[in-house]
Amino acid sequence: MSEKYPIIEGAEPFYYEGNEIGILVSHGFTGSTQSMRPLGEAYANAGYTVCGPRLRGHGTHYEEMETTTYQDWIHSVEEGYQWLKERCSTIFVTGLSMGGTLTLYMAEKYPEIKGIIPINAAIEISYMEAAASLEDVRFLDAIGSDIKNPDIKELAYEKTPVKSIGEITELMKKVKGDLEKVNCPALIFVSKEDHVVPPSNSQEIYSSIKSAAKELVTLDNSYHVATLDNDQDIIIERTLHFLQRVLETSSLQG
Fold first, then answer.
1. CA distance 32 to 154
2. 224 is catalytic
3. What is the pTM of this model?
4. Where does the entry annotate site (Important for substrate specificity) (predicted)?
5. What pLDDT does residue 1 have?
């Protein structure tokens, strides 16, 4: 952390030490750990060891985000993965939006990951590709807080750096090109109405991954930031069932 850009209150990384099963929890593009904290707390309360890293350049100021690359964001998630590996024998990964993209990246790179839970994950957003090529524009309006529940607000940047849009576009291309490398069990959540990531992204992820056990769950009452929205309890409940099912299946096979 630099003195120039202190971490916003509520955007700090979170860690909960529990049992030997670890869950890596990743927030999204221009967002913060606040969007994933309720899930992290629920999984910790269920006994799991949880790590919610703060992606580099996030949770501070959008001018700092502008200086980071998608490799920096991968590195932030990999640091969290290493923290879990030191404590856990089995690791699952979940994430919202670009956090879902990073979840897929991790499953592509680390086949030992036990299962993944992408939530409104992004692999192709045409308006972002167009925005990434804008010249003489440094910042665009915010994309955060796409939430159906009017009482909830996401802790996210009020501006989006054009340079960062170029970075997420590269990350999406990379991850989309390697989807057939994903073989682990997958529980994919998609909001029926999403104003940031087209729901067709999740359908394509579901069709493209090679996982034998995969499920696509539609969320009827949430927009993009479903982890803070009306379907939060459904995500938590279905994820806990998924973890249990995968663990039971592997212990039977083991």
1. 8
2. yes
3. 0.97
4. 143
5. 45
